[in-house]
Design brief:
Layout: H1 6-15, H2 22-30, E1 40-45, H3 49-58, E2 64-70, H4 75-84, E3 90-91, H5 94-100, E4 106-109, H6 116-125, E5 129-132, H7 140-153, E6 157-159, H8 167-177, E7 184-192, H9 207-210, H10 221-238, E8 244-250, E9 263-269, E10 275-281, E11 289-295, E12 298-302, E13 307-311, H11 322-327, E14 348-349, H12 360-374, H13 382-401, E15 404-406, H14 408-411
Parallel strand pairs: 1-2, 1-4, 2-3, 4-5, 5-6, 7-10
Antiparallel strand pairs: 7-11, 8-9, 8-15, 9-10, 11-12, 12-13, 13-14
Helix pairs in contact: 1-2, 1-12, 2-12, 6-7, 7-13, 10-13
Length: 417
């Protein structure tokens, strides 16, 4: 298997593990001619919307070839072959794919969340590198099993938390770590949309297969599918896994037989005193996607496409102006509202040179191939995936109970390292 990776080793070594060099690395790949014997072969388990999207990203890299497709829904095979441009071998059973496709180097797992642990553990046990979509597991036990399998396999595991590879996120967090907004204390994260998450079904018997995100057996709902990204950013900034979560959720907008909530609100508390407040709605999209990171000296706002820094003015020494104390005027509890209006001016945008820009999913794909080539641990490895997915699993449970959950009561001895 190492011979097959030699085509990227020389160019990857020049870039090293610098994530800001991934675009340059991709450009280097694109200029290299590769023989079939030098290709990295990738199998895909789950050729739905996300699986097809990741296939397109990986196939932008010359020398990477998708050589096996696995799904339980027949129409996906034709869709996948349209992307590969070949009569790629197809399998309805992932075990058959893992047994028969002996030329595989790596597997992309993009199946419904409830199947992640089964598919990821089996792939790791075959000695394959795994790019596993987030959240890595539906339950805490699932997450633990994936981490143990990754450790035992000697293969690399990368989770699909692609904003770990977004250059503007990395720049923002490096500046936060350097103290640019003081000590970060609170993160308010939103992902609000205005559509019902339901997909058309050609036959009623396919309802749970196609609309799996709406059913608890397969899905963690909004917190897993959307909030996992923002929870990961909070874990990254606070440098820890949450220690407790308070949750709430409901089916408010779409009374259509779904089981997962169409709105959820959670508050995560971290060991260092940090707090993450997360809200997701799919019935109103006014706020859209935002992560607001509040520090003692300023704020960072991140979106799906950009970010900006805002800085706090100097704090007054007293809530009551000195002249009011001296003159003894009468006032109410609030002296004036003008200072409490939302700030509507521009922040200082995060600026990146063109060579450091790029689609986060593509950069995550480049990073995964780079790690295979150089035998390097991925930045978004199984430990990162574990921290986010366990927080999701316990947040989902807290929202269902409308209660508080302490992580220590459910996680026990950590396997995430």
């Amino acid at each position: 298997m190492m011979k097959r990776r030699e085509f990227v080793t020389a160019s990857a070594a020049a870039v090293g593990s610098s994530l800001l060099g991934l675009e340059a690395l991709a450009e280097t790949f694109s200029r290299r001619a590769t023989a079939p014997s030098d290709e990295i072969h990738v199998g895909v388990i789950g050729v739905g919307s996300r699986g097809k999207s990741m296939m397109r990203q990986f196939l932008r890299l010359p020398g990477v070839k998708v050589t096996a497709l696995c799904d339980v829904y027949e129409p996906r095979f034709g869709e996948g072959r349209e992307i590969t441009g070949e009569q790629t071998p197809v399998f309805r059973d992932y075990r058959r794919m893992l047994d028969d496709a002996r030329d595989l180097d790596a597997v992309i797992v993009a199946t419904p969340l409830g199947y992640h642990a089964e598919h990821m553990v089996a792939s790791l046990q075959r000695g394959l590198h795994v790019y596993g979509e987030k959240a890595i597991g539906l339950t805490v036990d699932d997450c633990n099993a994936i981490v143990r399998a990754a450790r035992a396999s000697g293969s690399w595991f990368q989770t699909g938390l692609q904003y770990r590879y977004a250059p503007y996120y990395r720049q923002a967090i490096e500046r936060i770590e350097a103290g640019e907004i003081g000590r970060p204390t609170h993160i308010y994260a939103y992902w609000h949309r205005n559509y019902n998450w339901r997909r058309p079904v050609p036959d009623p018997s396919l309802e749970r297969l196609i609309n799996w995100r709406l059913y608890r057996e397969y899905s963690g709902g909004l917190l897993a599918e959307l909030g996992s990204h923002q929870i990961d950013v909070a874990n990254w900034i606070f440098g820890a896994t949450p220690e407790s979560v308070i949750g709430n959720g409901a089916i408010t907008f779409y009374d259509d037989g779904r089981e997962t909530f169409d709105n959820v609100q959670t508050v995560f508390t971290y060991p260092n005193g940090g707090t993450l407040v997360f809200s997701s709605l799919i019935g109103n999209h006014k706020v859209g996607y935002q992560i607001n990171i509040y520090g003692t000296g300023g704020t960072v706002e991140l979106t799906l496409e950009d970010g900006a820094f805002y800085y706090e003015p100097a704090r007054p020494n007293s809530a009551v102006p000195r002249e009011l104390v001296e003159r003894g005027v009468h006032t109410t509890a609030t002296l004036a509202t003008r200072g409490d209006m939302p700030y509507r001016g521009p922040g200082l945008p995060i600026e990146l040179p063109p060579e450091e820009a790029g689609d986060p999913s593509f950069l995550a794909s480049v990073a995964f191939i780079n790690c295979i080539a150089n035998d390097q641990r991925p930045f978004a490895d199984e430990r990162v995936g574990w921290r986010s997915a366990v927080a999701v699993a316990l947040g989902v449970e807290a929202a269902r109970r409308h209660s508080r959950i302490d992580f220590a009561d459910h996680v026990g001895t950590s396997v995430e390292g």
